[in-house]
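Our consortium's second objective concerns turning raw sequence data into structural hypotheses that experimental partners can test. To show how far this objective has progressed, the report includes one record in full. It was chosen at random from the queue rather than selected for favorable results. The single chain below, 82 residues long, was entered without modification.
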Amino acid sequence: MFSDSPGMVIAVSVVISITIFLICRELFCWYFKINKRTELLTKILEQQTKLVELATPVDMTRPRKDKDGNYLSIFDEENLTK
């Protein structure tokens, strides 16, 4: 049956090879939790995007001074709550 047409043998072997590859890939991804990692990274990216959208832009072109005339630093703990 298959020995008569070499094209059919090649086609069947390609289909079998692709099927085995897909099954092995799915097992590999499941074993190393790659699908779960991708899902978690997607959630993290969505959360970071929301945070960036909520963040107010800071004007970094000129330094700001407080009421006493001292320059404000973005690293001061007092300024983090403002």
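The partners drew two points from this record. The mean pLDDT is 81. The CA atoms of residues 67 and 79 lie 13 Å apart. Both points have been shared with the crystallography group to help prioritize constructs.
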